[in-house]
Amino acid sequence: MARSAEVAVHISHSIATMALVHSVIVGVSRANPWKGTGTTGIDKRPVSGPVAVRAPGPKGTGAVGLQGDRAHDVEHHGGDYQAVYAYPRESLDAWAERLGRPLTDGVFGENLTTSSLDVHGALIGEQWRIGPDVLLEVSCPRIPCGTFQGWMSEQGWIRTFTQAAEPGAYLRVIEPGAITAGDEITVTHHPEHDVSVATCFRALTTHSELLPHLLHPGVAEAMPPADLAQIRRRLAR
């Protein structure tokens, strides 16, 4: 093969596998009959144009990372370590086939639907550059709740979602900016451990024998302090 042809094939392959933001998604407040919070922001809908992203501050206020969005269950959602929730389009497609119905971007309550990015395999503490300005850091997996199950209208959904161990990733904002659908995602930092989002999820849900791995310095530094306190209590029992 001629050198120019080799280069063309390489460029074509790189473009085809480039990690991208498929959709940027902001929640619409609606009644929540599945939990005692009154309202929920799980009804997420893609938006056009850039969306400002910034660190929202401590949990408890309802603030999240994307402008125009908010958390309603302020005890369990929102704050710096759950500023942005990402889920891959490829997993949504697999779930759509399994459930036998179409699943739109945002249906899992995610803020970013990604493409060609291994979100579940991302390491805790891994950092993503999105577009020219925004830098996010993977902090913890999403844990399913009653609102998610009610929203999906699938019997036994929490158990089904948990067994799949494809939870998506919460991220904190290291550098603020704006994100637009189509922005490239570049992994700029790989921590020196092997604890992925999926491994962390299993440790917190179905495989408690994995909990000690979450106290590895490179993992613990990136996780929510409240989660670490709970892990230490569980291990001390």
Outline:
By secondary structure, the chain is of the alpha+beta class.
Features:
about 240 residues; alpha+beta; M1 Pyruvate Kinase, Domain 3; eight-stranded mixed β-sheet; two-stranded antiparallel sheet; 7 helices; 10 strands; disordered N terminus
Examine the secondary-structure arrangement and name the CATH architecture.
Beta Barrel
Helix content: 25-40%
C-alpha geometry: globular
Query: Reading side by side through the largest sheet, how are the strands ordered?
Result: 2-1-5-4-8-7-6-10
Describe the structure.
A hairpin with a 5-residue loop joins strand 1 and strand 2 (38-46). Residues 1-16 have low confidence and may be disordered. An eight-stranded mixed beta sheet has the order 2-1-5-4-8-7-6-10. Strands 3-9 form a two-stranded antiparallel ribbon. The chain has one domain (20-236): Beta Barrel (M1 Pyruvate Kinase, Domain 3). The chain contains seven helices and ten strands. With 237 residues, the chain is an alpha+beta fold. The longest helix has 15 residues, at 3-17.
List the topology elements.
Layout: H1 3-17, E1 20-32, E2 38-46, E3 51-53, E4 84-88, H2 89-99, E5 112-115, E6 127-130, E7 134-141, H3 146-152, H4 157-164, E8 169-175, E9 177-179, E10 185-189, H5 197-204, H6 217-220, H7 225-236
Parallel strand pairs: 4-5
Antiparallel strand pairs: 1-2, 1-5, 3-9, 4-8, 6-7, 6-10, 7-8
